[in-house]
Automatic annotation (TrEMBL):
The lineage of its organism: Bacteria, Pseudomonadati, Pseudomonadota, Gammaproteobacteria, Chromatiales. PROSITE patterns: HIPIP, TAT. The keyword Electron transport applies. Homodimer. This is High-potential iron-sulfur protein. Residues 29-96 form the High potential iron-sulfur proteins family profile domain. It comes from the Bacteria. It holds the Pfam family HIPIP. InterPro entries: High_potential_FeS_prot, HIPIP_sf, TAT_signal, TAT_signal_bac_arc.
Length: 96
């Protein structure tokens, strides 16, 4: 009976750890909002959701965060906000 209790405890602990980890990730993503065109920082950085500069967009910028292929990603220039991968701003620097 002692092994059964320990086994259940370990299963519950592992499930809780996974839940906390995934839950924290989900909350982190939900907490971020998309940069709006009228945001003072966006205006100052001349941010646009769709780049008009050939070969330059947020997806291939040095400041972009997150995984390739995601439409919305974090950016070092706009902390705690998401930018469009197809966007652009004056801080654009080619990812090396």
């Amino acid at each position: 009976m002692g092994n059964l209790d320990r086994r259940n405890f370990l299963k519950l602990s592992a499930s809780t750890l996974v839940g906390i980890t995934l839950g924290g990730t989900a909350l982190h993503v939900v907490a971020q909002e998309v940069v709006k065109a009228d945001d003072p920082m966006a205006v100052a950085m001349k941010y646009v959701e769709k780049s008009t500069v050939e070969g330059a967009n947020c997806a291939n910028c040095l400041h972009i965060q997150g995984k390739d292929g995601e439409a919305l990603r974090g950016c070092n220039i706009f902390p705690a906000k998401l930018v469009h991968a197809e966007g652009w701003c004056v801080a654009w620097a080619k990812k090396g």
